[in-house]
Amino acid sequence: MAKMYKSGNGKGWMYRAGQFCLCLLFLCLPGNGVAAHTIQLVLSSDAAPYREAAAALEDVLARQNVVTQSFTLQELIEHAPASSTDKNIGVWVAVGSRAADHLHSFLPDTIPLIYCMVADPERIGLETGRKIVAGVSVTIPVKEQFVLIQKAMPNLDSIGMLYRASSPKSVQTLAEVMEHLPPSWQLEAVDLDATGSMAEAMQELFLRKVSMIWTMADSSIYNRATVKALLLASLRNQIPVFGFSGSFVKAGALLGLEADPRLQGQYAASLVLDVFSSKKKMIQSGATPGVILAVNTVVARRLGISLPDEIVGSAHVIGADQ
Description:
Radius of gyration: 22 Å
Largest sheet: 7 strands, mixed
Structural class: alpha/beta
Number of domains: 2
CATH class of the largest domain: Alpha Beta
Distance between the termini: 38 Å
CATH architecture of the largest domain: 3-Layer(aba) Sandwich
Strand order of the largest sheet: 7-6-8-9-10-11-12
CATH superfamily of the largest domain: Response regulator
Oligomer: single chain
Number of strands: 12
């Protein structure tokens, strides 16, 4: 199997690009016996979690004699001919949100698209506009997140969150939070659109003295700069943050969600096989296998928070003493 995201050993980029084009040409040749059971696998980047998910997916499919061509999104954009997309080459698989977003708009809607390691499938629009689209998300429903938080912090009595009144997705998430808020909790929600800046919105949120800041995967609110600012403010104010990703927890959130790349890749592989076997009724979009709680024990110590042993024991622990 050609793994185009791997570095060559002295052959150089031109050799790898040539291999890539030859692979696409081979797949498009008429009468090719394996073309109906070949997938194109596109990674958002060469980052380790994406490579791990891709490797797990390829391992499952190889045992079922499914040929996989793997390359990064950048390689696809720079070198793949647009005409290759009108060839019904089995299935395309996106690993990561950027790859999923690009393929959703790039591919004809008759070509099956499977995805994994995607933070917010609905925001990208993956659930509409295609004949066959399914995948696995790196988050879990709000209600299940609150159950995890209650187990980790049973004495918690309030949470705060930022949202945008101008964003339908943000408003929908706020409604879900209000619907599933535990009876013993109080919610403090600050509308970014009603404040002068992100800094002012965060200041207002911390002034309300909530027990935890809860975050959502929303690019209109959170990026690297705003995540960093929020985490620094949380340490200054001694208020923990629940992050929507493992990288958020690594950066300084007390708790959050972490996706297991191997399980995500394996689940995506099962969806690919469902497509090939025409078991379309079995395909479930937006499932969340392999998503567990992550805890940052360094942050816990800095905030003076003691988490239950059973929670730490079953979670992905970040920052544990070696």
